[in-house]
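quick one before i forget lol
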Amino acid sequence: MSGRILIADDLATNRIVLKVKFTVSGYDVIQVERIDDVLETARRAQPDLIILGRGQSGQSLTICSALKKDANLHTIPVILFADKDSQHNRIAALEAGADDVYSPDVKESTLSAMVRNLIRMRGTYDEIMRHRDISAEFGCAEDAASFVPAAHIALVAPEPEHGLLWRRKLGLELPHRLDVLTKSQALSDVSTLKNAPDAFVISASLAGESDGLRLVSELRSRVHTRNAIIVVIHDRDRPHDGAMALDLGADAILNCGFDATELAVRLKTLLARKRELDALRKRFDHNLSLAVQDPLTGLHNRRYAQSYLNRLEQEALTNGQPYAIMVLDLDHFKSINDRFGHGVGDQVLIEVANRLRDNLRAFDLLARFGGEEFMVALPDVSQKDVMAMAERLRRAIGDLPIYVAEATFPIAVTVSVGVAVWGDQPNDSRSAHELTRAADQALYASKSDGRNVVTFGRSAA
């Protein structure tokens, strides 16, 4: 499943329509007949997202606030349905803690994009929190809270005069640095982390239609703006721009053009979340770099990988979230050391680590297990995805030789891969240790079959 959605609405027709829509899209849908029962059901089911209908007594705002105040539920994103799309309704919902607002006036495709976007953001948050918990296990203390500086917000409008108007109106709502940029300035001025804005407010259409959407894609692909907040402003004349913006990586959209009040409410919430995540990333990188990092390749080491796998095991057994483990071993690596020396062998290992890293998702685990052996852990993947990813990693190593300055010619390197997938058999209850052992056994089979192949463990197709 793509995720678990809890739908709560006192009106059965509303629940049924949404259940059909999201079940067809591959989601696991839980229905709650009474809005009052949302808190209890959410604590038990731990959904990835909650959709709150109005309810017969209109108490969804109260329930939304209660969800966001609950220590065990506050990270679950909430979409609140409004009977009518108005500034008043949207701001009331956002101030109650809703992560987004949907009304019948908005395209259904936008609702689907909201769901995908919020579940993706929840996954990113959970991954960082998983790293934080592992950091605590190793005795790394958290930094004391420090002064929070004003945020830097870039405004990218269709015309300079529009940008100046945006800045004047938004300046009345937020005490942050506001800069008006063109599209080219937004891309060129963020080449260093020091100059990168914390947030971008972008018109969907700039010099040409969808230029703003292309800018969203560019900013998300660049290292220094990958974690920036992006809010896209579009008009109802182009209703599909909103859904596309969210799928390209925007954090939020404004459906009715520029509205300084609504934008300010959204930015306050998004900036607070960004500050929290940035601080967690910084602490994790600093505190764990020596304790759990392989000094040669910069990858995580066995110690960290084991704690990470324990987390995946817990999530699998609690929520049924599938995951996979790959064990990769370079073929005939000893002959490289014997022929060229250990210095060249080290350079080969570094290049192999880089190629593996470049072909994995940002939240996948890549660790050096020792010598020429690597481990990959893939959270929340289908078996089909695992098969494609394993083959991609094998080819990333074997298709191109490795060039090392100290060697007189390029060095051909191949890798054997063993894979095990949790959830590929009914009522799977294997521990992470057992899954790792299954991946090891599959690796041995790859070696026996001639090397440079991928083998799946028992029960995999």
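fyi The first strand starts at residue 4 and ends at 8.
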